[in-house]
């Protein structure tokens, strides 16, 4: 069998990249997957680039050379943060060729390391990968791993590394919580108080100049510290504390509504909910990107077949009445042609809608399993940063979390048109099994 691999001695490897002691366990691991939660300035990006370089040099192959991806939340971010590291740590390797346009380094054996942003995940589809690094995964598109990266690893049985800092209970936290005790994953948490990378004087100054939550999040890897600038973060934390994020069963005697955020060229999100007494019960959340409307009606049909959940009315944003040039029909007309009753909601003021959601969250119950991604969206929905004023504005940041939050605004907007709480069915609290 003809294998191809670059052959380097230990001295050359060490001259390329000399890892910090806290990352030795990562580089010596046997597990296919690794996840590292690390404090700021720990060197996690350099560590991950070093791993990519070593895999490009030593991975054996028969026909197609190794392909390794380093993916950050945005293209601009990966170019700014990781590109210079990749060029620096490969500069001593004879014959490495760089492409500034593709942000890639190609080795003499044909192996390639390329950098990409998760802001356009469809550009990554169809690739094979021997290894992937997902940097600051909590700020990446949450569908990136399951829909794009994981399938790309399959035929090569490639590995993956997730790195990032704590930033609330988002999908990076969910992955950490799921695998922290999994022997097939190496999961490490690097706190500034324990690594010794930053000296005591620097940490003391950081404590003095940052809020306790900011310091706990950025330096001590605390996922439960309040994320700065969020609209609903504290309200979601309170819902969890009050056990309103729990097992919320579907009640077949109560109508089910769906509230949509209809993305054009982006994500479409929907919340499924029931109105019971004073409670608004969210039983399901679903989101996808780049799919036709038939995908979402198909998902609803499949949900009905599997769980018996039948949606009685779709609550759509105001632009669902816009006529599309390609089809000549509106999205409302499409859903109606598929047998759904539709209510197109009036255009709302975004700031007023955000305030209305905040007002209603104390009356909301969320199914912890079926609404997990949507809960993360609400938890992480935040204000944009005004660089000139050096302060948060009241304008929401448009990112991967905003679609679920926009769909929630539609759900709350629909309440005044569906009816008042006195019109809703009396609460059946015995149906709710609280999970502590």
Describe what this molecule looks like in 3D:
The chain is globular and about 65 Å long. It folds into two domains: 10-218, P-loop containing nucleotide triphosphate hydrolases (Rossmann fold), CATH 3.40.50; 233-431, Nucleotidyltransferase, domain 5. It has 436 residues and is an alpha/beta fold. The strands form three sheets. An eight-stranded mixed β-sheet has the order 3-4-5-2-6-7-1-8, with helices on both faces. Strands 9-15-12-11-10-13-14 form a seven-stranded mixed β-sheet. A two-stranded antiparallel ribbon has the order 16-17. The chain has helices spanning 10-16, 24-27, 44-58, 75-81, 83-90, 144-153, 171-179, 192-195, 200-209, 212-218, 233-241, 293-307, 331-337, 350-360, 372-380, 402-418; strands at 33-38, 67-72, 97-99, 104-106, 112-117, 131-135, 159-164, 185-190, 245-246, 256-261, 267-276, 279-289, 311-316, 341-344, 364-367, 383-386, 391-396. Helix 3 (44-58) packs across helix 5 (83-90) and helix 15 (372-380) crosses helix 16. Helix content is 34%, strand content 22%. The relative contact order is 0.11. It is built from 16 helices and 17 strands.
């Amino acid at each position: 069998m003809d294998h191809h691999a670059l052959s380097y001695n230990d001295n050359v490897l060490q001259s390329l990249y000399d890892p910090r002691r806290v990352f030795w366990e990562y580089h010596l691991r046997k597990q296919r997957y690794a996840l590292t939660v690390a404090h700021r300035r720990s060197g996690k990006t350099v560590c991950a680039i070093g791993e990519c370089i070593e895999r490009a040099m030593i991975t054996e192959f028969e026909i197609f050379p190794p392909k390794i991806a380093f993916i950050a939340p945005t293209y601009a971010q990966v170019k700014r943060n990781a590109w210079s590291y990749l060029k620096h740590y490969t500069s001593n390797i004879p014959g490495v060729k760089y492409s500034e346009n593709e942000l890639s380094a190609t080795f003499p054996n044909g192996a390639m390391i390329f950098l990409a942003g998760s802001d356009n995940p469809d550009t990554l589809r169809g690739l094979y990968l021997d290894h992937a690094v997902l940097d600051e995964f909590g700020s990446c598109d949450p569908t990136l791993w399951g829909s794009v990266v994981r399938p790309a690893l399959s035929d090569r049985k490639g590995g993956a590394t997730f790195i990032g800092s704590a930033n609330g209970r988002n999908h990076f936290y969910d992955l950490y919580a799921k695998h922290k005790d999994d022997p097939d994953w190496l999961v490490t948490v690097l706190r500034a108080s324990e690594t010794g990378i930053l000296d005591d004087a620097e940490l003391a100054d950081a404590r003095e100049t940052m809020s306790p939550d900011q310091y706990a999040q950025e330096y001590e890897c605390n996922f439960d510290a309040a994320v700065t600038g969020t609209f609903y973060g504290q309200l979601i934390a309170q819902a969890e504390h009050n056990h309103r994020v729990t097992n919320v069963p579907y009640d077949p005697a109560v109508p089910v509504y769906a509230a949509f955020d209809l993305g054009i060229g982006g994500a479409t999100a929907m919340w499924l909910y029931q109105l019971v007494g004073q409670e608004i019960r969210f039983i399901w959340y679903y989101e996808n990107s780049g799919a036709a409307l038939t995908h979402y009606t198909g998902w609803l049909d499949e949900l009905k077949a599997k769980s018996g959940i039948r949606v009685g009315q779709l609550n759509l944003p105001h632009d669902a009445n816009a006529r599309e040039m390609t089809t000549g029909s509106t999205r409302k007309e499409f859903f109606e042609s598929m047998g759904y009753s539709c209510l197109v909601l009036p255009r709302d003021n975004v700031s007023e809608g955000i305030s209305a959601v905040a007002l209603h969250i104390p009356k909301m119950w969320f199914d912890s399993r079926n609404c997990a991604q949507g809960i993360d969206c609400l938890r992480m929905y935040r204000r944009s940063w005004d660089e000139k004023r050096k302060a948060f504005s009241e304008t929401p940041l448009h990112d991967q979390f905003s679609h679920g939050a926009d769909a929630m605004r539609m759900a709350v907007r629909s309440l005044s048109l569906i009816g008042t709480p006195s019109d809703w069915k009396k609460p059946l609290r015995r149906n709710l099994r609280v999970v502590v």
